[in-house]
Structures are given as structure tokens and as C-alpha cells.
Specification:
The chain is of the alpha+beta class. It is built from four helices and four strands. Strand 3 and strand 4 (108-113) form a beta hairpin. The longest helix has 11 residues, at 54-64.
Length: 117
């Protein structure tokens, strides 16, 4: 993900913000032992009905918080024993928000402000 300082500098200039369509999109999933690439794995999981489409989660994220989509990832998380969509939105104040959803059920696992470490 882009450093928060870079994102905040983009948001700080309102004229530039209206001209910049910043979307850093990645579909990252657990490496498949059969050599299937990440995007192909995501398509296969969606086609087989294992996960919901990314568009569903982007809409859910925007319902929780207005903002610009800056990143979306699909990962298998052993903590939940499930595929999880991580959605990152940048709000008008320059704050990045992370939301984690169960990719199969749509359950919201996490909704929090990203902190600079």
C-alpha cells in the first residue's frame, strides 16, 4: 500500500484530488500449489460460488465510509479459516480505513483506521 504521507499529500491538494484517479488494486491470494496465478484463483473461487464478487465488497465498504478505493486484496487467512477481502479507502480528511470481510459470507471482521507506525 502507498505510504500514508503520500496519500495525505494527494488529498491535501483538492484540485489535484479531483483530477487524480488513484486506485491501487491488487488481488492477492495464497499461492496455489498448482501454479495458478492470483487473479485466476480469484476468478475460479468466484465462478465456483466459493466467494462473492469484489464489487459487492467495494459497495459494502462505501456504505460504511465515503472514500476513494486505494487497495483491495483477497487473501486466505488461517485466523478465520476463510478467504478474506481487505478493502482500503482514503477519506476526504486523508485518513485510510481498512475493512476486512469474509469473502464467502460477507461478514465484516474488521473496520478500523489505519495507523502510521
Amino acid at each position: 500500500m502507498l505510504p500514508l504521507m503520500v496519500l495525505r499529500s494527494i488529498v491535501g491538494n483538492r484540485a489535484a484530488t479531483s483530477l487524480v484517479a488513484l486506485v491501487v488494486f491488487s488481488v492477492a491470494a495464497v499461492a496455489d500449489p498448482d501454479g495458478e496465478d492470483d487473479a485466476a484463483l480469484a476468478r475460479r473461487l468466484f465462478s465456483s460460488g466459493v466467494i462473492k464478487p469484489l464489487s459487492y465488497f467495494i459497495e459494502r465498504a462505501h456504505a460504511l465510509r465515503d472514500g476513494l478505493l486505494i487497495e483491495a486484496k483477497l487473501e486466505y487467512e488461517s485466523e478465520h479459516d476463510a478467504y478474506v477481502y481487505e478493502i482500503y479507502l482514503l477519506d476526504d480528511s486523508g485518513q485510510v480505513w481498512e475493512m476486512e470481510f469474509d469473502a464467502a459470507t460477507g461478514e465484516l471482521y474488521e473496520y478500523e483506521e489505519e495507523r502510521e507506525d
